[in-house]
Amino acid sequence: MKKILFATDFSSNANKAFSFALNMAEKHKADLIMVHVFNLKAVWTYPYTGDPIEMKAQAAKSWERSLKEFFEHYDSKVKASYFAVENHTVVQGILSVIEKQKPQLVVTGTRGKSTVKELLLGSTTKALVKKSPVPVLAVPNYAELKDYDKVLYTSDFREVDLKALQDLVDLVGPFEPEIKVLHMSTDNEFEHLEKLEWLKELINDNVTYPAISCDLILCDDTFTSLNRYMSENDFDLLVMLEKERGGIVDKMFHQSLVNKMEFRTWIPLLSYNEHYLSQTGREDVKKGSVKQ
């Protein structure tokens, strides 16, 4: 990993998320891209000028100075760059920097500080996950900064899970965690046991990592069972796949689950976008980097 993007609105939650971004950057010896998105219409503190372009430039320079001062307060050896982007939505501003800077990970808080403008995460996180071509790490304000010793990946028995797991190993590998792949279902046990064996075989053939295992839970309430499983096993990171689904009910169910986890989970949530993973997975197959 070479670049990590950290998006902030300077709220207390964003400050907490920065510690996670910095820890990841130091572990990977990666560069840190510091980003703040501002809306010029909401800015009242900059010198008045009749030239809107000049006013935008003044605002950007001021926010970039704030980003630099914030970063330098931590006295880290990580190389950082600073981008203040004017945009009427946080998501589009972040995506514009992703497109230009090509980071391998985006780190944000789960809540912003303003009720007037669009919050950084909450509804913005869900929009960002759906559109970001790179994984998004959402950090709750009450998450405890520590190394990733136990990581939980929730699987829906799809081949794209394989690509997500390969990327996950690259991401958390330097921490040398135990990775648990979990599938939860209310359907036939025998059928899912067969699929579980299929997934295990795929992982063994394609993912080079010694501390990875699979588990299956049959349950009536997915959200409640997931929270119980997380509590009983003391995981440090939850990983979920934002899926492309055909049926409206299916889509609503998954969205409901992800929303609940984003707002209520007590550990960081790492989200992958199935659409972009599928694209990169096909490219890897063409290049011969994925075993067939």
Automatic annotation (TrEMBL):
Q: Which family does it belong to?
A: Belongs to the universal stress protein A family.
The UspA domain, residue ranges: 1-140
- One Pfam annotation, family name? Usp
Protein name in the entry: Universal stress protein
PANTHER family, sorted = STRESS RESPONSE PROTEIN NHAX, UNIVERSAL STRESS PROTEIN UP12
| Gene3D superfamilies for this protein | HUPs (3.40.50.620)
Which InterPro entries does the protein's record reference?
Rossmann-like_a/b/a_fold (IPR014729), Universal_stress_UspA (IPR006015), UspA (IPR006016)
Highest taxon of the lineage: Bacteria
Q: Which SUPFAM superfamilies match?
A: Adenine nucleotide alpha hydrolases-like (SSF52402)
List, alphabetically, the CDD domains matched: USP-like
